[in-house]
Structure formats: structure tokens, C-alpha cells
Design a protein that fits this description.
Layout (H helix, E strand, L loop, with lengths): L2 H13 L3 H8 L3 H8 L8 H11 L3 H12 L14 H13 L5 H16 L4
Helix pairs in contact: 1-5, 2-3
Length: 123
């Protein structure tokens, strides 16, 4: 499941909305919506995200968070390390090989390191 799919499932559960009702409400099939929630489809496009935000009546910061989750929810990614250091290529390949074996705590640690680096001002 992707971060976006997890959020959609939680929103539906919080509001007592079935997969079929949501799919009908945003104009997609329930099979497509299920595949999107489970990470078996690519991340949703802008227009679908807008229909989802409207369906749930999500605005402002909450809408920005849904858009952010959609952006980071592509279930199959490719990392182009051409032109980067050998260490960057090694990291990308090792992560691809090991990600399925990492426990949730380790995944959280890696995400925290990346978040700290993203927020640290570059000098």
C-alpha cells in the first residue's frame, strides 16, 4: 500500500464510505480505486486528486498533505544515478535490493535522515 492509498483508506473508514461509493463519487471503477489504494496502480493524476479532494471536501493544509502523499506514492520508481557519485549508485542499488527486508523502525530512521537533510539549509 502506498502512503496515498493508506490515507484514502483511512478517510473512507473515518467517514463510513465504501470503496464502491467513493469510486462512483469520483468517476472511477471500484477495481481501479482498490488498485490505487493497494499500490498496484501508479500515482493518481492531478485531475483525479482534485476529484478526491472535492469528494471528501478537503481544503487548505489537509489538501496539500493529500497532494504531497500522492506525489510520493508511485509504487514503482526508477532512480537515475547517471552523473552522480559511485556512492549514490551504490546506495540506490542497495536500497532497491534491501527495502523489502527492512523493518518499519529502520525505514522510519532512513526517512528521518532524509527529512533532516531536506530541511537543513544548504550553505
Amino acid at each position: 500500500m502506498t502512503p496515498f492509498g493508506d490515507r484514502m483508506r483511512k478517510l473512507r473508514a473515518e467517514r463510513g464510505i465504501t470503496l464502491k461509493d467513493m469510486a462512483d463519487g469520483i468517476g472511477v471503477s471500484s477495481a481501479y480505486l482498490s488498485a490505487l489504494e493497494h499500490g498496484k496502480r501508479g500515482r493518481p493524476g492531478w485531475h483525479l486528486i482534485q476529484r478526491i479532494l472535492s469528494f471528501f471536501n478537503i481544503i487548505w493544509d489537509d489538501a496539500e498533505e493529500v497532494v504531497r502523499l500522492a506525489r510520493i506514492s508511485h509504487p514503482r520508481i526508477a532512480i537515475d544515478t547517471s552523473g552522480l557519485s559511485p556512492k549514490a549508485t551504490e546506495l540506490a542499488n542497495r536500497l532497491a535490493d534491501e527495502i523489502g527486508r527492512l523493518d518499519p523502525s529502520t525505514l522510519e530512521d532512513i526517512l528521518n535522515v532524509l527529512e533532516r537533510k531536506r530541511q537543513k539549509p544548504r550553505t
